[in-house]
Structure formats: structure tokens, C-alpha cells
Design a protein that fits this description.
The complex is a heterodimer. Helix content of chain A is about 70%, strand content about 0%. Chain A is mainly alpha-helical. Chain A has a single domain, classed as MetI-like fold (Orthogonal Bundle). The longest helix of chain A has 29 residues. By secondary structure, chain B is mainly alpha-helical. Chain B folds into two domains: about 60 residues, no CATH class; about 220 residues, MetI-like (MetI-like fold, Orthogonal Bundle). In chain B, helix 3 packs across helix 13, helix 7 packs antiparallel against helix 10 and helix 10 runs antiparallel to helix 13. The radius of gyration of chain B is 25 Å and the shape is flat. Classes of the chains: A mainly alpha, B mainly alpha. At the A-B interface, helix 1, helix 4, helix 5, helix 6 and helix 8 of A face helix 1, helix 4, helix 5, helix 6 and helix 7 of B.
């Protein structure tokens, strides 16, 4: 950070500190201390005695959190909150990135593209709680348009409230969350596309390159920084998903839509007595995974 | 290239244009239909909704849903909306002021530990709310700020600082420093320079921060459900699950409630769209 504009000699420290004090106070009390304290609590039992990593072992021993048997035997969920987050990432990440890129590229050349972009982005603007209500509505047996479509194409016997059954709720919510999140990917890719020099495309066109070739040889490589942002932000969002799961079925039925953020929340604030130790362990696991991805992004950004 | 070849290429290009329009509009329809559905459901009686909001054999528009959501017996939106405003407005402006001061310090002053402090704050951006909420809950209980808007506003303010400081420091760094130096030579205090010269130049960035932070706080559910518990203090996002209920759903009332709660962030987004999108595209992140 050398060579930046500066209006102060290096020795004085009072003024910069005065400017920083409110921010440092708030961050220390409500972010830094709580984070450290959460790690500490995750090492204590209910009586406040130090128990090492026992809480972590207990969390992984719980079927709410880690239940791969059903998955191995090909049964329907619950597979446990952590595995549900993993499935979420496996399905939601590629679909969101694909649709986001597709819309960003297509809507540039389409009449009315700006209006469509605003509409798609609305999913990012509305409260996630309301987003959950919209999904529940789409999937409703009588009132939902998905079942309406099924009836039109003669598959009316399949009609059901898709979020009411352990076999279908997880997939229904994951696909629904693609609808909510794609706007973010689209906006970041759109901004990335603006940054590619037009000459590049024109030169390629004059050379007779096909659209397909231009897309793969110019657009995709030039969007690499945007892709890193999109992928990381999407991963973090998937790890922390909470609101829509809560409002639709509170993780049910039978834990089939449970996720880590919800599991932690239920453990800490909906159990009697509250299990702060294991809830803190879940929060710490969640944060370590988040930091892993974030560090990966920062690393990639520094390199490119 | 022969003439025939050019004609063939033009034809191909035209076909491609039609194809992109069809795909784009088809995909976009998927994104628009749910909003259309909730708007239709909010103005139609329940039997018509259960028959499909896209069916128009009977169509008797009504505002009953809006009326009942507004005056709901256990979660009146009239109250919840006001509560959300009371929390959201200070939670938007307090962190922006605090972050602007801090970011200015990082951008213009040199002091020991500056780079270390800045890096730490940037890293805090990715801390999930879940990682801090249990101690925050304990702190608020001890301070008597649990179930109290002051507690919630403080937490929202603190969690907004990392991304806002990063955003503003980047903005300040590219502002020309000469005017500030001249003012300094003329004897202006640092604080006076900050609010007389720097802040006015920062308005576009402040608009981005306002738009994003307002919408994020308004939409928050996680902090609210843990820190606010009295029915009369509940925020708009907390009212929605109550209105939904657990067994029977009145889609007319619930759709109206959804529209009332989401119309405010949508209005902010529409009014400040350019700034909102700029903030998102600049990689504004929050835990």
C-alpha cells in the first residue's frame, strides 16, 4: 500500500485513530469478540467445563448433521444437514452459474434486455423469507403453477405439494433457490462483459470466427475474474442458506430439508436446555468451510 | 467471399437473432411468472386461487387480502412495517457514517498497524452471522438490549462495516488529494476537510451503500428472529411466517402480505438501481 495519497506525516497517530475508533469499537464488541467466544464455547460442555473437541465429535455423531447411510442405501433424505448443504452446492452452483452467464450474454443482444435483467434480479432484492413464500406457492398442490402445468401436459396424477414430502423437498428447494440467486450471477457477469474491449470481438468477427468460437475463446476466458467472484459468493450463500428452509418447513419433514445454519439455530435457540456448545461447534465448522472457499478466492484474485 | 456466401451468412445471423430472442424470453418468463402469480393471488379470493391464478372463468378482484394482512390479528403488517422502518433507517445510516470515517483514515493517513488492521477488517467480511450470534445473544441479554431495537441496530451496524470500509477506501483512494492538501495548508481541521470536501465528493458511493444496506437490513431474518421476540416488536420479515401459519395457508392474505413486505426493497432498488447494481458488481459481500 505504498505510494498512496496521504495528507499526514507518518508520526502522528491521534487523528487516524480518532477517525477509526467508532468502527474498531463496534467491530471488536460485536464481531471479533463474539467470533473468538464462539470458538471457546464450542470447547465447553453444558456445565461450562473444558471438553476439547467432544462437541465436534458429538455433532458428527448426530443423524441431524451427518447421516450418510440413507444416501448409501439409495433412500430418500434426510441425509443430515451437512450433506444437504453439499448436495445444495453440487446442484445449485452449476445451474446458477450457467443461467447467470446465459442470461448475461443473451440479454445483451435482446430487445428489452434491460427490463428482463431487472426482473430476474428482483430475486436478489426481495427478502429471502418472501422468496420462500413464492417457492411454496409455485409448489402448492392446488394453487401452484407447477402442478397446473403438470395437469395441462397430462401428468396430473403426479400433482402434489412438492415441499411436503421428504423425497422431494430438498430438490424442490434447491431448484427454487436457483431461481432466487441467478440474478446475482447475471449481474456480475453483465458487469464483466461490459469490461471486455469491443475491439476484441470485432477483430475476431473480421477474422471470420464463429459465435461459438468467440464465446469459448474470448468471452469465457475474459470473464475469469467475474467467474471467481460468482463461484465464491454462490458457495458462501449455499453454505449459509437459512431463511427459505425455515419459512417453508422448518427443515422438515423429518429433517429432510435441514441445513447447517438451521441445525445450528435450532440447537442453540429451539432446544431446551439450549445446546450452545454443539451449536457453536456447528457454527465453527460452517465458518471453516466458508473461510476455505474465501481464501481460495482471494488467492486466485491475487494471482490473476 | 462470394455474394451467395454473404447471403447465406446473413440468413444464418438472422436465424441466430430469432433463436436468442426466443431463448431469452422463454428463460425470462420462468423468472417473471412467480411474481405475476403472487400479484394475481393477492387480488383474488381464495377459491379462485385454488382453481389456479392463471384461470379466468371467474374473476372477482378484491382487496380483502391486503386489508387482512395489514390488520392481521397476531402479526399486523401495519405495525411490523413501522417496526422495520424504525430498525432499518438507523441501521443504514449509522454504519455508513462510521465506515466513512474509518475508510478515510485508511485511505489518507499513514500509521503503524494500518495495513494489518485493514486486512483484518477485510477478512471479517466473510464471517457468517452464525459464527457470532450466540455470544451476541449473551451480550444483549447481559446489557438488557435483547428484545430491544438498539441491540439489533448495533449488530446490523457492526456487520455492515467490513464491506463498507473496503468499498469506501477503494473509492477514497482514487479521489485527487490536492484539494485536501490545499485546505490543510489553509488551516482546516482534518474533520472539517472530511465532511466539507470529501463527503460531498463521495455521494455516488454513499448512494450505493445506502441502497444495499437498506435492502439487506430490511430483508434480514436471522438477526431479527434471535434478537427480537415480543409480538408487538416483530419486524416485517418475522410477520410473514406468522401470517403463513403452519397448517392452512390463505394464499390471498399471504400473497398480499408478501407484496407489502417486498414492495419497499423493490422501491429502493428501482429508485437507486444504478447505484445498487454498481455496489453488487463491485463485489460487496456480507456475512
Amino acid at each position: 500500500m505504498k505510494g498512496e495519497p496521504t495528507i499526514m506525516s507518518p508520526r502522528q497517530i491521534t487523528t487516524p485513530l480518532l477517525f477509526l475508533t467508532p468502527a474498531l469499537l463496534l467491530l471488536t464488541i460485536f464481531v471479533l469478540f463474539p467470533v473468538a467466544n464462539t470458538i471457546y464455547i464450542s470447547l465447553l460442555n453444558q456445565e461450562g467445563e473444558f471438553v476439547g473437541l467432544d462437541n465436534y465429535a458429538e455433532v458428527f455423531g448426530r443423524r441431524d448433521f451427518w447421516n450418510p447411510q440413507n444416501l448409501m442405501e439409495g433412500k430418500s433424505p434426510p441425509y443430515g444437514a451437512s450433506i444437504h448443504n453439499g448436495i445444495w452446492i453440487l446442484i445449485h452452483l452449476p445451474l446458477s452459474v450457467f443461467f447467470g452467464l446465459l442470461l448475461a450474454v443473451l440479454l445483451r443482444e435482446v430487445k428489452g434486455g434491460a427490463i428482463i435483467k431487472s426482473a430476474v434480479f428482483l430475486g436478489m432484492v426481495i427478502p429471502m423469507i418472501v422468496g420462500g413464500i413464492l417457492l411454496r406457492f409455485i409448489y402448492d398442490k392446488e394453487a401452484g403453477i407447477l402442478n397446473g402445468l403438470l395437469r395441462v401436459v397430462g401428468l396430473g396424477h403426479l400433482a402434489r405439494t412438492w415441499t411436503a414430502f421428504p423425497q422431494t423437498i430438498l430438490l424442490a428447494l434447491i431448484l427454487g433457490s436457483v431461481w432466487i440467486w441467478t440474478g446475482f450471477c447475471m449481474i456480475v457477469y453483465s458487469a464483466g462483459l461490459e469490461g471486455i474491449p469491443v475491439d476484441l470481438f470485432e477483430a475476431a468477427k473480421i477474422d471470420g470466427a464463429s459465435r461459438w468460437r468467440i464465446f469459448w475463446r474470448i468471452t469465457v476466458p475474459m470473464l475469469r475474474p467475474a467467474t471467481i467472484v460468482v463461484v465464491t459468493m454462490t458457495l458462501l450463500w449455499e453454505l449459509k442458506i437459512f431463511d427459505i428452509v425455515w419459512v417453508i418447513q422448518r427443515g422438515g419433514p423429518g429433517g429432510a430439508s435441514n441445513v447447517m445454519a438451521l441445525d445450528m439455530f435450532l440447537d442453540a435457540f429451539f432446544s431446551i436446555p439450549p445446546n450452545f456448545g454443539t451449536a457453536s461447534a456447528i457454527a465453527t465448522i460452517l465458518t471453516i468451510m466458508t473461510f476455505g472457499f474465501a481464501a481460495y478466492m482471494v488467492n486466485r484474485m491475487v494471482k490473476s | 467471399m462470394s455474394r451467395l456466401n454473404i447471403v447465406a451468412r446473413l440468413k444464418k445471423a438472422k436465424r441466430f437473432t430469432i433463436l436468442t430472442h426466443v431463448i431469452a424470453w422463454a428463460v425470462s418468463l420462468i423468472w417473471i411468472i412467480p411474481f405475476l402469480g403472487v400479484v394475481m393471488a393477492s387480488i383474488r379470493p381464495l377459491p379462485e386461487i385454488l382453481n389456479g391464478w392463471w384461470n379466468f372463468e371467474a374473476f372477482n378482484p378484491t382487496l380483502r387480502g391486503f386489508f387482512e394482512a395489514w390488520n392481521h390479528p397476531t402479526a399486523p403488517l401495519s405495525r411490523a412495517l413501522l417496526n422495520s422502518l424504525i430498525v432499518t433507517i438507523p441501521s443504514t445510516f449509522i454504519p455508513i457514517l462510521v465506515a466513512a470515517l474509518g475508510a478515510y483514515s485508511f485511505a489518507r493517513f499513514k500509521f503503524p498497524t494500518r495495513d494489518f488492521l485493514f486486512l483484518t477488517i477485510v477478512l471479517l467480511q466473510t464471517i457468517p452471522q452464525q459464527m457470532a450470534i450466540i455470544p451476541i445473544f449473551n451480550i444483549m441479554i447481559n446489557l438488557g438490549l435483547w428484545n430491544n431495537y438498539i441491540g439489533l441496530i448495533l449488530v446490523h451496524s457492526a456487520f455492515a462495516l467490513p464491506w463498507q470500509i473496503l468499498f469506501l477506501r477503494n473509492f477514497f483512494s482514487v479521489l485527487p488529494v490536492e484539494v485536501e492538501e490545499a485546505a490543510r495548508i489553509d488551516g482546516a481541521s482534518y474533520f472539517k476537510i472530511f465532511y466539507k470536501i470529501v463527503l460531498p465528493l463521495t455521494l455516488p458511493a454513499l448512494a450505493s451503500l445506502t441502497a444495499l444496506q437498506f435492502v439487506w437490513v430490511w430483508n434480514d431474518f436471522f438477526f431479527a428472529i434471535i434478537l427480537i421476540s415480543s409480538p408487538e416488536l416483530k419486524l416485517a420479515t418475522q410477520a410473514v411466517p406468522v401470517i403463513k401459519g403452519r397448517l392452512f395457508i390463505d394464499w390471498n392474505v399471504l400473497s398480499a402480505a408478501s407484496i407489502i413486505v417486498m414492495i419497499i426493497p423493490i422501491a429502493i432498488y428501482v429508485a437507486l438501481q444504478r447505484y445498487y447494481v454498481k455496489g453488487i458488481a463491485a463485489g460487496a459481500v456480507k456475512g
